[in-house]
Amino acid sequence: MERHAMREEAEPVIAIWAAASPFLPAALRTLDDAGVPYVVLPDEPGAPGLDRAADAEALVVGGAEVSRTLLSSLPRLRLVVRAGVGVDRIDLEAATELGVLVANVPDYATDEVADHAVLLMLAAVRRLAHFQASTRADWVTVDRPPVMRLRGSRLGIVGLGRIGTATAERARALGMDVVAHDPYVGADAFARAGAAGVSLDELLAGSDVISLHAPLTADSHHLLGRAAFARMRRSPVVVNTARGGLVDTAALTEALDAGVVRAAGLDVLEDEHDVARHAALLGRADVVVTPHVAWYSQGSEQQLGASAARIALDFVRQGVRPPVLNPVR
Fold first, then answer.
1. Bridge-partner residues for 243, per DSSP?
2. Are 14 and 38 in contact (CB under 8 A)?
3. Which residues are identified as catalytic?
4. Between 20 and 30 A from 318 (CA), which of 63, 79, 201, 212?
5. How far apart are CA 212 and CA 195, in angstroms?
6. For residue 192, pLDDT beyond 80
7. Segment 165-180, tens digit of pLDDT
8. Are 289 and 269 in contact (CB under 8 A)?
9. Any residues with CB less than 8 A from the CB of 229 and at least 6 apart, and which?
10. Which of 80, 76, 77, 98 is nearest to 90 (CA)?
11. CB contact at 8 A, 261 and 285
C-alpha cells in the first residue's frame, strides 16, 4: 500500500512520540518557530491520546517501538524520523510495505560517542573501578591487578562509520595501532580512519581492545557471543557504545570469569528496561558501565531535537525527502 501526495485540505501535522525524551524542548522550539501544528504523544503505546496523531504526516520518535500495528493506525503517515541513529526498534519491513519513509539523525553526537568510547576504554584498561574502590583502603598495600600499556597496543574497531572513524582518530593520538572490520565501506574509509582493514576473525584474534560501532541487525545480534570470545587470543578489553544486543551478556560474563576478556566498558546492555538481570555483570570491578549516555552533552541534545524536528518540518512543508533507511520510492 503506497501513500502519496501531501493533503491540501489542512495544515500538515507532526506527531512527536517522545514526551519524556530530553531532546523534546529543542524539537518543540523548532516547530514553534515554524508555526507548524504538532502533537506530543504519551510514551506508552496504546495509551489514551494516540488517536490525536491520526492526521500526522510525520512522526518523530525517540526510543519507542514503532510496530506494524502503530504504523497501520496512522493512515496519513508518510515519514518516521528516529531522533537518534539506531532504527532497530522500528519495523522497517512494515514501513516499506506501507510506503512510509524512515530517516534518522546520524551525525548529532559523533564526537560525544567517540569520546565516551575512549573514556570507557581508558577506564577499563586502567582498572578505574578497582583502583577507585581501593582508595578507601590502605594505599600502601593496594592490590595491583595487571594493567596493559596502551601505547603500542592494538585497537580493533567493528563498524567504521562516523563514530568508528572518530574513535580511530582518538586512539591513534594515544599511540595505538588501529585495525577495523566493516564489509560495507570501501578502502577510502579505512584510509580516512588510518586503520588497516582486517577480517572479523583477524580482529578478534589480534586486538588488545575491541570497540563496537556497528548497527544492531538480525545478522549482528550477539556478534560477540561464545563463538567470538573463543576466537580471542590476547585477553582484550571489550568496549560497547553501540547497541546492547551486539554482545551476549551471559557469554561476556563467562569470558571475564575465564580471563578470556580482560575487562569491559559498556554504555549499552541487552534489555535496558530490566537492568536487574545484569546484576552479575554490573557489580564487577573489571567492568565499567554507564547508563546509555555516550551520546549526551547539552550541545548534542539540542542538536538532536532541532535536527529531527527540522527533517520532519522540511518534509511536510516543502516536500524535502531526507536520506532514508528503507527502500520506498
1. none
2. yes
3. 243, 272, 292
4. 63
5. 15
6. yes
7. 999 999 999 999 999 9
8. yes
9. 251, 252, 254, 255, 260, 261
10. 80
11. no
- CA dist 128 and 174 (Å) reads 18
Render pLDDT for 68-95 as a digit per residue (tens, 0 to 9): 999 999 999 999 999 999 999 999 999 9
Of the candidates 243, 237, 296, which has an alpha carbon nearest to the alpha carbon of residue 269?
243
Question: In this predicted structure, what is the pLDDT of residue 273?
Answer: 83
Instruction: Report which DSSP code applies to 245.
Output: G
Residue matched to cell numbers 596502551: 150
Domains and CATH numbers, the chain: 14-108+298-318 (3.40.50.720), 110-289 (3.40.50.720)
Say which residue the cell 548534542 belongs to. 300
pLDDT band at 9 (very low <50, low <70, confident <90, very high): very low
| Range 226-229 contact pairs with CB under 8 angstroms and sequence separation of 24 or more | 226/251, 226/254, 228/204, 229/254, 229/255, 229/260, 229/261
The answer to whether residues 124 and 265 touch, using CB atoms and an 8 Å cutoff, is yes
What cell was used for 119? Answer: 573514556
